[in-house]
Design a protein that fits this description.
- The chain has helices at residues 33-46, 58-61, 68-84, 102-111, 116-120, 123-131, 138-152, 166-183, 223-231, 252-257, 264-272, 278-292, 294-304, 307-320, 322-336, and strands spanning 20-25, 51-56, 92-96, 158-162, 191-195.
- The protein is mainly alpha-helical.
- α3 crosses α13, α4 (102-111) packs parallel to α15 and α7 (138-152) crosses α8.
- The longest helix has 18 residues, at 166-183.
Length: 339
């Protein structure tokens, strides 16, 4: 009598390691529409494609924000907003920069291979000097070195940036090359993951949407405030009368409709033929913005009502990446002759 023996099960395939991606975001409080369209939507998408690490960079914020309570509040607001807009702690790591102080130790060590001239030539340093001439602190100058440390401490090989920001990553690559040349191959040179993020103009229709100049459309503000922001938007300045044909290509309201509906070309045609007026188009944008963010606004309210829940997500994120940060620092100290 023979006994059939079932074949041994095939060994499980080894999990496919996804490339590691890193990005930091300033704790500027709850984000506006420009933040979402320009970065956060991509963060949400990329968490499904990469091993994604996202950091709220409160150390960086200290170069211009010196109010402790405001910094703490805005850090929590940004975390709540990121979670409300779709970041999933099960799919990505979200943490606060200062919760992993290894960042600042590595930044100091990287400063020792970074010529001052590299930092003085950066456009962001020149811009920050103009924006806050009475507070040109050392952190403004060394900001890019800490930025490089943020990325390479996790040996992230990829950084999501818009194509207009790719040059900002080059200094991090130069710092990595300088370190590797002096101490041996240690860090991968981070490369850009180009995203098709639009540059979102503010309510003035001229400058990029920014809280610092007050031309934003808030996501989590009361509806009355959002209505005021949208209905005050500058449109086509050459369209004086309701019966005048519009130019949707230069109308900021028309441009924003691209992000909140597939029928934007039909809306544009209404403006172009004067079938609709600017007020009509603004009202429709308001309706769609409120509808699009309705669920996120509710999640945000729930999270802000439970700050311990937000803090727990951030603490767990910092703890999850502790082994990576500690291993990198052990390697760096060994190569540099420390400890």
């Amino acid at each position: 009598m023979t006994t059939d023996i079932a074949p041994a099960p095939a060994p499980l395939a080894a999990p496919i390691e996804r490339p590691r991606i890193f990005s930091g975001i300033q704790p500027s409080g709850a984000p506006h529409i420009g933040n979402d369209l320009g970065a956060i939507r991509n963060y949400v998408k990329l968490q499904f494609e990469y091993e994604a690490i996202y950091c709220i960079v409160d150390y960086h914020a200290l170069t211009s924000l010196h109010d402790p309570e405001r910094l703490r509040r805005q850090t929590r607001e940004m975390a709540a907003a990121l979670l409300a807009l779709g970041l999933d702690p099960e799919r990505c790591t979200l943490f606060v920069q200062s919760h992993r102080p290894e960042h600042t130790e590595l930044a100091w060590l990287l400063m020792t291979v970074t010529p001052v001239s590299w930092l003085e030539r950066t456009p962001t340093y020149k811009e920050k000097k103009q924006n806050q001439p009475d507070d040109i602190n050392h952190g403004l100058l060394t900001y890019p070195v800490l930025q490089a440390a943020d990325i390479v401490i996790y040996k992230a090989s990829l950084v999501p940036v818009g194509k207009d920001q790719a040059a900002h990553l080059e200094l991090s690559r130069e710092i990595v090359r300088a370190f590797n040349n002096r101490y041996g191959d240690t860090f991968p040179e981070p490369t850009a993951v180009h995203t098709e993020a639009p540059i979102v103009l503010g309510t003035d229709g001229v400058r990029k949407m920014s809280k610092s100049i007050g031309n934003t459309i808030e996501i989590f503000a009361p509806e009355a405030e959002i209505k005021k922001q949208i209905m005050s938007m500058v449109t086509d300045t050459k369209r004086i009368l309701r019966t005048d044909p519009g130019r949707p290509e230069v109308c900021n309201v028309c441009q924003l409709h691209r992000s909140f509906g597939d029928d934007y070309e039909e809306i544009w045609e209404g403006e172009r033929t004067a079938r609709t007026g600017c007020v009509d188009t603004k009202r429709l944008l308001l309706e769609r913005v409120l509808a699009h963010y309705a669920e996120a606004r509710e999640r945000y309210r729930e999270l802000m009502a439970d700050p311990a829940r937000i803090d727990r997500v951030l603490e767990e994120g910092a703890e999850r990446i502790r082994p990576i940060a500690e291993a990198t620092m052990a390697e760096v100290r060994e190569k540099m002759g420390l400890r």
